[in-house]
Amino acid sequence: MGGGRGTRLYPLTMERCKPAVPLAGKFRLVDIPISNCINSGFNRIFLLTQFHTASLHRHIQSTYHFDSFGGGFVDILSAEQTEKTSDWYQGTADAVRRNLVHFRTFPHDLVLILSGDQLYKMDFHKVVERHIAAKADVTIAAIPFPVSKVEGLGLMRVNDDLSIAQFVEKPKDPAVIQSFTLSDALETTLSPSTEKRCLASMGIYVFNRAVLAEALENSMKDFGREVIPSLLNKKRLFAHIFEGYWEDIGTVRAFFEANLALTQPLPQFNFYDPLSKIYTHGRHLPATKINRCDIDHALIGEGSIITEASLRRCIVGIRSYLGEQSRLEEVVMMGADYYESEETQRANVARGIPQIGVARGCRIRRAIIDKNARIGEGCVLSPDGKPDGAYAGGAVIIRDGILVVPKSGIIPAGTVV
Question: Which of 62, 174, 193, 255 is deepest in the core (most CB within 10 A)?
């Protein structure tokens, strides 16, 4: 599911949808669920898209090519007008409903529904095996969350056999949340915790084919708020408990913190696991060139040129340029889509336009620098002590306490925020 507007991730979604947002220096968010599918042996994948889809479509078309013998594919299904509808997808359930006709082309008994903007690794075979063993109609992947951290998540109350007794979407009342805590019997089956926990929906569903079609014979728009609650006490609903790392990258701060966490020596999400690779577009870029730099805890994408710079807890994306004497601390720099020729750079400099990247003598802290951004010499950028809002004539946006330079943004030399 990759069709939402992504308003909470704005301005990173100013020109792209959420699943197309760059991640960890060289990947895209959508690479996570697709890689999980491939690693689980599931290779018939439909991607439902709607808003700002061009970047996502280019990435998918240039990345995922299956051989003709395995029958695998990643098929993009954009919102389309039909004889019955002429508007956009109205929600997750509505998006699936409108595309049932495309799914029917391929023989299947089960449908696995995933979100396009979460960071996790999961063997979906285990979810499907649990679904079949329980003779379930619907299985919902769920993660145990401490009561203090469940705000904004859909919660489920389950019996000791993991059948779902009640479901509530994003409760705020503390009394309601407390009523959804796990039983002592279930707590003993999980890893130890110092705090009572609830089961939170991960937005990952397994449906029997016939049950999905029946559940969507209505005008319900959303799975979590409408479809799942409507099936309680009518169908066999079960939970599959997942205790691994999972992060819903739905806000600018969550995205920022999830990226910086990858710079740790042993991050919870491991891109280096040979048994569960994360796939992305192979770009055939040259090796990164690093000259006389001071670097501590950083991920640096290929094809970058970094000279006499200082980096502390940073993600540096592909084709990034960092000039002399620049200092970056807790920065997610997404890099560039292309290299500029020397002739183009000279022409831009003559017009007062910096080259793509970060010029010499800059000081940048707790920031996201989106792709193809141009930051001139001597800029000082930091969100410290500033409320959320637009700065430097709108060229810089602070959101969730994180400073963001939007995609293709131009920050003139000497700018201080």
Answer: 255
